[in-house]
Amino acid sequence: MRALKWILAVSGMCVALAGCGGGGGSSNTSTSSASGTSTPAAVSTAFADPTATPVSSGSANTVPIVVSSFSSVRNFPMVSVKVCAPGSGGIGVTCSTIDNVLVDTESFGLRLFASVIPTSTLSNLTQQVQGAQTVAECESFGSGNTWGTVRTADVSLSSEVAPNVPIQVIADPSLAATIPTGVNGCLVGTNMTTPTALGANGILGIGTSPNDCGANCQNSLVAGAYYVCTGSSCTPAQVTIPNQVTNPVTKFTTDNNGVIVEMAQVPDTGAATATGTLVFGIDTQSNNALSGTNATILPTTIAGDMDAVFEGRTYSKTAFFDSGSSGLYFQSTALTKASNGFYTPAAPTGMSAVFTAANSATATVKFNVSNGVTLINSGNYAFNNLGVSMFNALDIGMPFFYGRHMYYGISGQPASSAGAGPYVAYVSS
Predict the structure, then answer these.
(1) Which of 9, 180, 362, 424 is the most buried (most CB within 10 A)?
(2) pTM for this prediction
(3) What is the residue-level pLDDT of the chain in tens, covering all 429 positions?
(4) What is the rounded distance in angstroms from the CA atom of residue 83 to the CA atom of residue 245?
(5) Distance between CA 145 and CA 189 in Å, rounded?
(6) What are phi and psi of 122, to 5 degrees?
(7) Rounded distance between C-alpha atoms, residue 307 and residue 358, angstroms
């Protein structure tokens, strides 16, 4: 899901799906003006589906991904994450494996609901404090806010161990203070206090940034970000980068420069389930090569954003590829849509947008859209062509990932054949 801490204002529609990635633009930038070079809105027939297949999830640097009916949210890719007491090395009696954690390429850091962490583990996750005050955080997504403490854990994903990682524990019962509101509070939105509200037991943010706020939260007070709390009272706080909620991949000993989300293709009518593989590292092992794949490579902002033009509208730093978004979210005047925001073309329709990367490279991004009402009514949970209306962002969500290998190079980590991160790359066959 789109983490909104990196932007100043959010506008638009997030309807029909609980797993909306959100999005939005800076208050200083218009993201939906009718400017730029017009791109084709639609073609008479759908594009051929991509055909890349996932590598085996049996290797030490991989974990399996599953899309299923675990919750009512469609297109939610889930993995299992093990959390342990800091300093345990990812083994021992303090460890617990948490299933059904959302794989999210547009946020950064691990966030788990306290209710899904056994007490024997939660009590051993060190609470972060400043002086005698508890450090808490609000993270805002298109689907709502997560409010909770910052704790330290050893995080294991397959055989990869990230030691001493600051994570967010959502709805931590040890935190007496309620979610901050008002001028210095969280962004307006639903306070997600249970796994049911999110549709997952937590969020594994493994996008292009090594942490969830960076220099902004280290050097200044950012409303709707970090707080220090005493009893029921909280005030905004500065938190150093090492103590911010951290992308756990950056803490691995090896395979720490990025991730690959690889999903098997699904039928155009949808599927009850879908499978894939989350691979750690890029160009570090035989199963994570980017070199030689002829991938489309797009350098991004640190938050994974790019510019784009779609149907004549220019999107400034508000176009992105997001595994945590259940659909393809965009604004179109060429497609019919239902009152709940689903696009409803009479036949599968190919759409295209021109993305411009941070290095000025361009790529034509092609995707298909079918009748969303029909798809949802099928009872399936995995769709490669589900489109939903949203203004002020071009959110290429989970439908685009099926049949592709999606690479995310993390900023500040060792370079791959694509150079240093941040970047997004993809292979379609």
Answers:
(1) 424
(2) 0.93
(3) 766 544 332 223 343 344 555 332 222 222 232 233 434 456 668 999 999 999 999 999 999 999 999 988 999 999 999 999 999 999 999 999 999 999 999 999 999 999 999 999 999 999 999 999 999 999 999 889 999 999 999 999 999 999 999 999 999 999 999 999 988 899 878 999 999 999 999 999 999 999 999 999 999 999 899 999 999 999 999 999 999 999 999 999 999 999 999 999 999 999 999 999 999 999 999 999 999 999 999 999 999 999 999 999 999 999 999 999 999 999 999 999 999 999 999 999 999 999 999 999 999 999 999 999 999 999 999 999 999 999 899 999 999 999 999 999 999 999 999 999 999 999 999
(4) 14
(5) 6
(6) -55, -40
(7) 8
| The CATH fold of domain 4-51+256-427 | Cathepsin D, subunit A; domain 1 (2.40.70)
Residue 126 identity (one-letter amino acid): T
